Amino acid sequence: MVDVVTIAVNAVLLSALYALVAIGFTMIFGIAEVLNVAHGANITIGGFSAYFVWSVLDLSIWIGAIAALVIPGIFSLIVYKYLIKPIEDDPTMVVILTLAVLLVVEYAFRTFVGDTARAIPSLLPGQTEIAGLTLQNNRVFVFLLSWALIIGLILFINRTWTGQAIEAVGMNRRGAALAGIDQHRITLYTWFIAGMLAGIAGLFFGSFQSVSWEMGLDPLLLSFTIVILGGIGSIKGSVVGAYIIGTLETLTVTLIDARLAGAASLIVLFFVLIAMPQGLYGRAEVE
Length: 287
What we know:
By secondary structure, this protein is mostly helical. It is built from eleven helices and two strands; from the N terminus they run ααααββααααααα.
């Protein structure tokens, strides 16, 4: 018998992590108008940053969480400033170069760490039973932290000058420039925030699965689908799209076959784009 409650809970918990990754991905596209394939590398870097702080430096996993935020954020800044900025007007080269960055990072970890996945401790050990359903405390805690970050980002965008500037650049770069907004500085902020979100998602994934050299690839591919489905540049669309895709993934893996993960999402994306080419919450480009 299908446990509907368990499926629903798993979908809700997993989708929050997909939303974290997708929001960073869509922010970069909305601001810099480039597809940052290297976003997946930040997930891997975040997971391994926490792992090395905990296992090698023998520090608390919470110190590792800080590393999972800061190190991918700095890495993202370096990628933009020294690799992407000189060629940002050439979208094809940006995709090729960021793909190369992703592959270099992944295979560097594979070479120096190995193929074996590494376990990291739970952020909140133990489990809780609610109405006959056993929940891992760590998964619930990760869900709450993910939503705290999402809500914090939304408040930052809506309530601060810098956040408003990010939104303005995403809506109309020419108008933002006429208003005196330093687009280069705003772009740097955006890449740093996106790197931090992907990095902490890497820690969250690793805390209930494991960290491995290829851990950033699947979330990146799903995030690409989520962003297109929700509407490129839309944070709200990324959250809604993440829950649609996360639910479909959970249903497919649980009820059909784990090997078909991603197939249902692509089918839904195909039909959505036929009906709404800009996605669920996309907006027309403003000149």
